[in-house]
Amino acid sequence: MGMLLMGTSAVMAQSEEPEAPAKISGYFRLNNPAFGDALQVNDRYSITCGTMTANNAGSVIQLKTDEVWSFAVAMDKLNARLEAGEITEEQYSALFQQTMVVDAWKGGFYPITTFRSQGVEYTKMIKKLADYCDDAIEAYLNDEIPVIYEKYRNKLTLLCIFASDVINPTNLETVDTFRAWAESYLTRWRSVADFNLYLQPVLDIPEGESGLPVPTGEYYMVFKTPVWVGNMKKAQQYINNMVIDDVAVSEDEKLDLWGDSKTRILRAVAKDYPVGSPAYKFLDDLLGKAEADMVYFLGEAEDGSLYIQPLPDTFGTNGVVVTADDLARCTWRFNKVDEEMPFAVKPVLKAGDAYYTTLCTDFPYEIKSAGTKAYFVESVASDGTFAETQELTKVPAGTPVVIKSQSADMKDNILVPLAETVTPIEGSALEGTYFACDNSGQMKGLRLLDDGKASFTLLPGKVAANSAYYTGEVEGAVDAIQKVLSNTSNGNVYNLNGQRVQRIGTKGVYVVNGKKVIR
To answer: What is the DSSP letter of 406?
Structure first.
């Protein structure tokens, strides 16, 4: 038995040692062993951790990686750029040094190319930081640098004396030369910043001198804040130290290069991710914790939110200590969603001897249970029943369907995501949603008619995640309260969606014994 890399708990050697894959590709549930939870997408802006259930499409994540990052491959590409005349010898030397430093933190890591769930590609959230940062730098250079130059031109010369490795007199000849210096300083290393998520394999290190590290099948998710973040804060310290007299000054007299830039970045973030949304908060926290360019693990916090764990630098100079508990909360086990650990559906309606539900997922899938059928609905009759349908054994991604089953048990309603692309089908009478949403007033779900047939005649208060609905005109449509009022005098309690609940809980409207109750 050996110790895990970076001090995680010991892992018992397997009878057959697993080999590290060249690449990783497939559909997975990312389980955090420390909490027993799985990463899941709740809505477009929210990734959290929660109980792993077979019928939660938001926990099915499509993951693809490139091959592990290699210093040798990176150098081959750099040499090719030099030979092609794309960079000078001086640029080559600088990039060579930078690549060596980059290798210190991501050598042997898998770059994540796809991290997709519920119709959203979440690698873009990290990658788009490049655009946000570049836009903020450009705005800062255009708007702030001329003001700083005019106001502090005389004192800036002190930087040439006390920070000659940063700036020299030629950088201060004109506002343009000062702007060029600032741009160079703030965007240093930009050419090797890739804004990717990475997977770092967790390895079992055998005891003794013999044996090679063995992959455990668990991973850390790793990312790095852009180097310009550290440079912006260092520039702020340099300039304030030089241009502010050595006397007590109010905070508003000091330059706040970082604060101004962070405000600009978050303003751009808010255009894509609403203020207050989990995604916005995540990026705000990331920028707030980035005292310099740093590498982070992504894990799970006690409350199920995403947790950001900074890592020690190569030389141990940033004072960060990572405990075994930190590593545990940042460890992810990849459970492949396949026939052994499948995706399942839970019927919501019984009509005669059959059970029904609707489904719409962002991944293509194949029906595996013999008693389960998926129907593409081409038209709906005036009474809300399915008029024209075609059975599908392989369902394309994003296709709303009706699922008919012989059993209400999820284990009898097994689906398996497909790596292959399934050709989309046109002409669906239904629409689908990946996320739970309030009913627009026209979205009709499944309901049992008096003659025992399943129909799209129920108007729920909220439409369930990964479900299908019909928005056309039908006869006899009722909302959830009407349905409950017509069927309850038994003392049971129902909510506004027509769902039976154990008791009256939080504030709202309930139906008890056929009467509305407002709490």
So the answer is: S
Please state, in angstroms and rounded to a whole number, the distance separating the CA atoms of residues 474 and 301. 47
User: pLDDT for 496-518, tens place per residue?
Assistant: 555 556 556 555 566 666 566 65
Confirm whether 240 is domain-assigned: yes
User: Could you tell me how far CA 150 lies from the centroid of its own chain?
Assistant: 44
DSSP 6: G
Nearest to 44 by CA among 124, 111, 113, 112: 124
**Residue type for 127, please?**
K
- Are 102 and 111 in contact by the 8 Å Cβ rule? The answer is no
Any domain includes 503: yes
- 89 within some domain: no
Q: Are residues 355 and 392 in the same domain?
A: yes
> Are 285 and 298 contained in the same domain?
no
Among 220, 213, 419, CA closest to 336: 419
Q: What gap in Å lies between CA 27 and CA 370, rounded to an integer?
A: 23
Q: Profile the chain (519 residues) by mean pLDDT over runs of 10 residues.
A: 32 50 94 93 84 91 93 92 92 86 83 92 77 79 85 73 70 90 74 78 77 85 69 61 54 59 79 80 67 77 87 74 92 92 92 94 95 96 93 96 94 93 95 93 91 92 94 84 50 59 59 60
Any domain includes 74: no
Domain count, the chain: 4
**Residue 294: Cβ within 10 Å count:** 22
Q: Are residues 220 and 282 in the same domain?
A: no
At which of 308, 337, 366 does a domain end?
Answer: 337
Domain that holds residue 404: 343-475
CA dihedral sign of residues 244, 245, 250, 253:
negative
DSSP string spanning 129-179? Answer: HHHHHHHHHHHHHHHTHHHHHHHHHHHHHHHHHH-TTT--GGGGSSHHHHH
Q: At what angle do helices 89-106 and 71-83 cross, to 10 degrees?
A: 170
Residues 490 and 458 in one domain: no
Q: Say which residue the tokens 């751009």 belong to.
A: 268
Q: Would you say 253 and 365 are in contact if contact means Cβ atoms under 8 Å apart?
A: no
- Give the span between the Cα atoms of 38 and 55, in whole angstroms: 13
Cα–Cα dist 455/384, whole Å: 5
End-to-end CA distance of the chain: 59
Can you give the pTM of this predicted structure? 0.78
pLDDT at 117: 92
Question: To which residue do tokens 């590409």 refer?
Answer: 77
Q: What is the pLDDT of residues 71-99, one digit of tens each?
A: 999 899 999 999 999 989 988 988 888 78
Q: Judging by beta carbons within 10 Å of its beta carbon (0-12, 13-18, 19+), is residue 461 exposed, middle or buried?
A: middle
